[in-house]
Structures are given as C-alpha cells and as structure tokens.
Write a structure and sequence with these properties.
Layout: H1 2-11, H2 15-28, H3 34-47, H4 52-62, H5 65-68, H6 71-80, H7 86-96, H8 102-107, H9 112-122, H10 128-137, H11 148-156, H12 169-186, H13 190-202
C-alpha cells in the first residue's frame, strides 16, 4: 500500500530522529507532577476544532494560570491570545479543576483505554480524540488520535470510504483498529504512527 511505503521511507529518513525525540519527551511526562499533567490536559481541552500550533502558544503563555485563574481572567486571557471559543474552553478548564490530581487518577488504571473512558465520561470537553491526545502526550502508546489529518490520509489511501462528519464511539474504535493494523505493518506504536501521518499531511511534528 502507498501509505505503508511512505511511512517506511520516513522511518529511514532524518525525520525519524525528530519523531523519536518527541516520543521520548512524552515518556518523560511519567516523571512530572499532577500540576504538569493538568496543564497538558488543559492544552488538549483547547485543541478541539482549533489549531494545535496556536494552542501550544496559548499553553506556554498561560502556563500555571490554568491552575488558578478565575473564569473571568481565564476567558480574558484566552480571548487576548486568539482562541475562538474562549468562553466555552474557560468553562471546561474551570470544571476540570476537580481533577487536578489527574496523574494519580490515570496512573491507577492498568489499561489506558479504560483510562480514556474515564476521561471522556468525566471531563466535559474531552471526546475520544482529545482524551487520546492527552494520554499520548503524557507517555501512553496504545490510543489513536483520530483528527481530520488522519481521517484524510486514511480516506486518500482507501482505508475508509468516507470522512465522517462526526465520530461516534463505535466508529472511533473501528478506525482505531484500522490504524492498529497499519501500525503492525509499519512496526510502529499508535503514538508514533500518529506523528508520522501528521508529518505526511502537514510537514510538521507537533504534539
């Protein structure tokens, strides 16, 4: 398959070092505090229907403010920094603060997919994509971040017959299985595969 060939070529190119370095950075999150995990959770809450690059800049600017700014201050800051959904995202972050011990909660799960179910069920604003994004960014390997770039690549390579307008849980898990198969063929974990496909679509390695 063309996609498999493209990924395998990238694996033996200089970009593989960049991707491996990024994966190591994610793994280092295992040693970070509840507060750092919570700030990463806030980053993932910001990313729904919004640019990941802009969210990275916002995260750097607000930093510890995610932990203590009141609703009004947080809305104002998000608006100043250009987030399109500043009111809603501020609300999600304030609500999520009841889980400031997010690292303790997640690391109690032996199965990261059960941890993902907890996140989707309990944290308003996190769907399967955002919950998977968070888990990958704090060092987990076996969940897929199925965003528009991934869907477009799967569609262009005829792994899926259409790009769904929205993803139900059932459809998300079906597409995750497709990505698992691609991962097996390319000898990549889902965490790594996401970065390779993202690079194919955008020419960038973000987080």
């Amino acid at each position: 398959m063309e996609l498999i060939d493209k990924i395998n070529k990238l694996k033996s190119s200089p970009i593989s070092k960049v991707i491996n370095k990024r994966i190591l950075e994610f793994k280092e999150f295992k040693n970070k505090s509840n507060e750092e995990w919570f700030k990463e959770l806030c980053f993932c809450l910001l990313t729904a229907n919004f640019s990941a690059e802009k969210c990275i800049k916002i995260q750097k600017e607000i930093d510890n403010g995610f932990l203590y700014l009141n609703r009004e201050e947080l809305e104002k800051k998000l608006k100043e920094l250009g987030h399109r959904y500043y009111k809603k995202r501020a609300d999600f972050i304030i609500r999520a603060r009841q889980y400031k011990n997010i690292k303790d909660i997640i690391t109690n799960y032996k199965d990261e997919r059960k941890a993902r179910e907890f996140l989707v069920k309990n944290i308003k604003g996190l769907g399967y994509k955002e919950a998977s994004h968070f888990l990958r960014n704090v060092g987990y390997d076996n969940v897929a971040i199925i965003d528009r770039h991934i869907l477009r690549e799967l569609y262009d390579n005829q792994y899926i017959s259409e790009i769904p307008k929205s993803l139900t849980r059932k459809r998300y898990l079906e597409i995750e299985k497709i990505l698992e198969e691609i991962g097996k063929e390319t000898e990549l974990k889902l965490s790594e595969l996401d970065l390779y496909i993202w690079y194919l679509r955008t020419g960038k390695v973000l987080k």
